[in-house]
Amino acid sequence: QNFRCTYLLNGKTGQRIRLLFRDFDIYFGGEHCPYDSLTIYDGPNNKHPIIRKICGLQQRIVIYSFGPSTFIEFNTTSPAKADPRGYSLDYEFSSRYVDVLKLMDNQLGITHLRGSECDLLVRSNRETTHYIHSPKYPLMYPANTTCTFIIDGLQGEQNLEEVMLTFEKFAVLSETIENTNSIYLRHSSTDYDDDEPCATSYVGIAFIPTTIKSVLSSGEESNYDVMLCDRLQNGSHALGPYISDGPRMVLVFSSNEKISNGDGQKPLGFKAKIQFKTDFGIPGKPIGDSNQCMFQFMKPRGWFNSPRYPANYPLDTNCTYIIKAKPDEQIQVYFEQFALYVNEHSSSTETSCADFLEISDVFIKDGVEILQLQARYCANTFPGPTVTAFGSHELRVFFRSDHEGTGNGFKAIYQIRKAFTEEIPTKPLARHCGQRIARTNDLTSGWLVSPGYPIKYNKDLICDWEITVRPNHQVLLHLVKMEVEGSMTAESVNCQNAVIRVDAEYGIGAAQSVREICGTDKTVIQPIISKNNTVRIRFFTSPDKVNGLKGFNFTWTEVKKITEDDECLYPTMYLCTYTKLCIDARLKCNGDENCGLHDDTDEAHCNKLENAADVRTVLFAAIFSGCIFLFISGFFGYLFKKKFEKKRNKRRRRAKFGMKHQRKPFRNSRPITKADPHLLPAPAASRLTHHNVTTDIIPLSTEQRNEKSPNGEMSRNINPLFTHSLKPIDDRNTFYG
Known about the structure:
Layout: E1 4-10, E2 16-26, E3 37-41, E4 50-54, E5 56-58, E6 61-64, E7 69-75, E8 86-94, H1 100-104, E9 110-112, E10 120-123, E11 129-133, E12 145-152, E13 161-172, E14 182-185, E15 201-206, H2 209-218, E16 226-231, E17 242-243, E18 248-255, E19 269-278, E20 285-286, E21 293-297, E22 301-305, E23 317-324, E24 329-339, H3 349-352, E25 356-365, E26 368-377, E27 381-382, E28 386-387, E29 394-401, E30 409-418, E31 432-438, E32 445-449, E33 462-468, E34 474-483, E35 487-488, E36 493-494, E37 498-503, E38 514-517, E39 528-529, E40 534-541, E41 551-561, E42 573-575, E43 581-584, H4 601-604, H5 607-657, H6 682-691, H7 702-705
């Protein structure tokens, strides 16, 4: 306890010292060894850099000095914290170890990892280029040597680089390999053994983060993303380039056995070029310089994004995305995310749109590229779906960020499809709808609606309308109804899945005049007047999914801006009071507002006429209804009168003939049997007499006795004894038996 012991190892010039701890057991008081420790300095005293400070229980530690001297210091504290064994080490002075100075070749950014024989750290100084090679290159490399090259690009909020490694020469010979140009791609977790290719000498490359972590933690017993050996001929694909999946790459050179004569060719070993390039994190083919953010896309479907998306994009960055299609194809683009930085404390347009994205169509005329700007999007505008203009087969997207703030950026999907045969469809198709509308003498105003309005629109729609009026006239668009998914306010626009684009300056080439419209609040959109006699309206919906609202409804009107009132004095014209627009007189009082913003004089002047028309309409309706009522009343009165007369005539007839045919009240009579022969008429009595043994003659009924005599007088021969018991028989002399 309280013990200090030092060792000074001095070799000759050109020699290095190798330390091998066969056993090491010193009390472990913490990660930085604050109590008992052994410190190794890379020099003759403790003023030199520390190679390593060690404590705890260690196994087989191997340490190399950079030069010919090493200073070792052992310290213990009081009281002793345990009873460890201490340490035992072997040392060796030798000049056969790798000359690190020659290996680094005095290159800026390449440093030796202290304590190792030949491990180097290669660091970028922003877009720099470095060279590494095997020990003693171009001569035979030493046997039983392992050198690890850790290659690090810049990584931070503003800088993110990737590593590109290309072999200029490669001849790492392995005795178990008989063929040439050997390359082995490894992505499994199995270890290499002597029976595998490149078993004696090889170069292993790790450029995937998980593989890099495994190599740095396991040392020689590791897997690699790529394993190379033998002599590679110029032009071989195995020479690279190899690009890291991140800012780091690790290369390991290992020689296990000495090859006395090699293959008789020079050089031996390897030499590689390392290039640090800015890693923009953008798919596609890089074009231009390594630090230039320019990418080309030619696959039928893909995506592109802002640099380092979904992380914040760097400051002061310009990126260009070139999407190319074939001559008979068109390009469709829609955005999944769009979040640019906006300076909330700035009111000027320039600072609020310092970060922006532009979309342009590319036309080729006489071998010269002509860019036609579609739109520019700032932080407050989420781009809607779009497609290349008719005749354009290339889309160019430009993104710019300034030096102030940053955001998550954007991600967009593109797909290349067969182009439409017409710019404006003559007949609406499944995906391409719209029409050309031309002003005629009978058509000076009209309606323009979305497909199926007011039924829900579908996804993956591209619609084009073109409205043309007479020269020196303009087109006035008025939004009557709008239900298109998205939102619009005075500060922001989000038309991610569906968008209406109105180009009021069609043919002039001013892309900033294109209005993007969506949402359900039509009051945000004021009436639009074209700059010339043509206006273009386009409607796009996302190919993936839309909610499918009702759509939109526009009215259009041919108008003419005038400066003097006498320009609109013809009987066929009407002058709007406030907007000073001259319209067709037939549009007055047609139920639509055709005069523009805050001017309804073409309809307001119709109030008196409308009121008079209303009075006439009510009066006519009353007269017509009265006539109908009188007709119906007279008809039913006539029917009632006829029915009443019929009943009256019937009563008169009954009164006239009622004495002869009085109606007798009906009574349920008891059936007449053989016990009542005196109640039966003569024919019935005779029948009963024929069949009855009593031979009694049944007297006549009361009706028969009361029949008139031939002289018209009633018979009076009524037996008073039977009068009270007689029961009537109907006029048909019906009887019951």
